[in-house]
Structures are given as C-alpha cells and as structure tokens.
C-alpha cells in the first residue's frame, strides 16, 4: 500500500507486520549517544534531522541510503508518534526518532565529530517578538553543528521565510562553506518535507543550502565566533503565519 500526503506519495510502503521495526528512542543517555549500540552494532555514517516533523525526509533517506543510520528529533510528541509509526511499518532498522529539541541533542548527546550530516528543514521563525529567543538557528547552534560533524561533514538548511534566510546567509558562512541551491532538490523535486510541499503548492519561494564544515575552524574558534555574532532578532514575515499553522 502506497500512502499519499498532499497528493504526493509518502516514501516507502508498509511491509508485512513480521518485518516491522522499533524506531522509538524513548530514553536518552546521561551523556553522548553510542551510535553503534543504538543501531545494533552498525558503524555506518550518522544523519541527523533536527525538527524532523512527521519524518518524511528522514524516512525517504533511510530507504534510499541503507548504508547510513538516521536519527530524527522534534519537540512535538504528536509528530514523532506519526514518524515512528511510519518508520516501524517500513521495517527500517537504520532509523530512530526521539522527542527532543535539536539544540539539546547536539549540546548533550552528540559526541564531537561523530555525525556525517545535520539537516534542518523549515525551523520555526517565531513571529511573536517575545519568543524570538526560541529560534533554533543561532550562532551558538551553528557552533554546535560544526562540532558534531566529522571533518567535511554536511549541514543542510532550508526555509521559506525570507527574514530567516537573510539571517542564515549572513551567519552560516562563518562556520561552513556555504552553497546555496538555485533550484529544487534533485532527489525530491516535489519537496523533501511536508512543509516544502505545501510551500511549493502555494508558489512560495523556498531557500535551500548545502554546506560543508570548515576544516580550519577549531571548536574553540567556533565558540569564539559564536559569541561575537548577532542573535536572530530579525522580523519574520507574518504573512507566512497561517502556513506555519497549517503545516
């Protein structure tokens, strides 16, 4: 059975129940995650999706790249339950989901230079000025992403919020070799995530970049840079608020 969402097939198909897996990571360790233990002694490269929502991108990646292990986190339990169910039903042993914030995951549970990729799709822009301090993409967050990645590791970021993107273009190149994509993702021209699909259907511009961690930037140097850079206090475009609520 092929499932659909917004008229686009959701990645993968439900397999027979005897092949279902358990993608729930319900208890976090006191310290760093042991990737080999988490994924059954597998030492495959690790891919993180911070704010993974219903897991559409990560499930597609886990299906397409069985040679990689995948962990998605989101602060909303309801979307993680949805992601886990679909991951379980696709029999994916290289996939886990947890209810957790992206910054908390990087700060407390990811050892330095231990993951191959960090993905961040459509981080919440927070329109209320009293909540701008909750925005995920800050200089401190970018320093944590840089610390988590192996040398040359990839950081992928995407948004449809022009204010957020202007900030991203100003601060991300400090920590990463910044490459903005001119068009859609070749692997998913209709959208990698549910939010991207909705934005494209509404003919909104979507901003995308693939970045490589700067090899000559030390952990201490990244922290020092983060302390000197401005926080994301931009004014988000409130015309997108209804779309945020829908997605």
Largest sheet: 7 strands, mixed
Q: For the record, what is the CATH homologous superfamily label?
A: Vaccinia Virus protein VP39
CATH architecture: 3-Layer(aba) Sandwich
**Ends apart, CA distance between termini:** 24 Å
Give the class-level CATH name. Alpha Beta
Number of strands: 9
Structure description:
With 247 residues, the chain is of the alpha/beta class. The chain has a single domain, classed as 3-Layer(aba) Sandwich (Rossmann fold). Helices cover 33% and strands 23% of the residues. The protein is built from nine helices and nine strands. The chain has helices at residues 35-38, 56-64, 77-89, 102-109, 139-148, 162-175, 194-201, 219-228, 241-246, and strands at 2-5, 8-13, 46-50, 69-74, 95-99, 115-121, 149-159, 176-180, 207-213. Strands 5-4-3-6-7-9-8 form a seven-stranded mixed sheet, sandwiched between helices. α5 runs antiparallel to α8. The longest helix is centred in the C-terminal third of the chain and has 14 residues, at 162-175. The radius of gyration is 17 Å and the shape is globular.
Short synopsis of the structure:
The protein has 247 residues and is of the alpha/beta class. The chain has one domain: Rossmann fold (3-Layer(aba) Sandwich). It contains 9 helices and 9 strands.
SSE layout and pairing:
Layout: E1 2-5, E2 8-13, H1 35-38, E3 46-50, H2 56-64, E4 69-74, H3 77-89, E5 95-99, H4 102-109, E6 115-121, H5 139-148, E7 149-159, H6 162-175, E8 176-180, H7 194-201, E9 207-213, H8 219-228, H9 241-246
Parallel strand pairs: 3-4, 3-6, 4-5, 6-7
Antiparallel strand pairs: 1-2, 7-9, 8-9
């Amino acid at each position: 059975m092929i499932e659909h969402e917004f008229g686009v097939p959701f990645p993968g198909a439900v397999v027979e129940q005897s092949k279902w897996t358990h993608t729930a990571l319900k208890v976090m360790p006191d310290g760093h995650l042991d990737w080999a233990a988490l994924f059954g002694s597998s030492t495959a490269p690790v891919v993180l999706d911070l704010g993974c929502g219903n897991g559409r991108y990560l499930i597609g990646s886990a299906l397409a790249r069985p040679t990689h292990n995948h962990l998605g986190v989101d602060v909303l339990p309801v979307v993680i339950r949805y992601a886990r169910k679909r991951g379980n039903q696709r029999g994916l042993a290289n996939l886990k989901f947890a209810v957790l914030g992206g910054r908390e995951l990087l700060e407390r549970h990811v050892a330095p230079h231990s993951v191959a990729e960090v993905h961040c799709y459509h981080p919440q822009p927070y329109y209320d000025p009293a909540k701008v301090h909750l925005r995920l993409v800050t200089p401190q967050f970018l320093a944590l992403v840089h610390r988590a990645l192996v040398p040359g590791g990839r950081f992928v970021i995407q948004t449809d919020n022009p204010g957020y993107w202007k900030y991203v273009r100003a601060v991300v190149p400090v920590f990463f070799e910044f490459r903005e994509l001119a068009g859609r993702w070749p692997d998913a021209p209709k959208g990698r995530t549910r939010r991207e699909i909705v934005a494209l259907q509404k003919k909104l511009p979507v901003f995308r970049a693939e970045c490589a961690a700067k090899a000559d930037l030390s952990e201490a140097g990244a922290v020092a840079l983060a302390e000197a850079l401005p926080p994301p206090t931009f004014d988000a475009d409130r015309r997108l608020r209804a779309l945020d609520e829908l997605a």
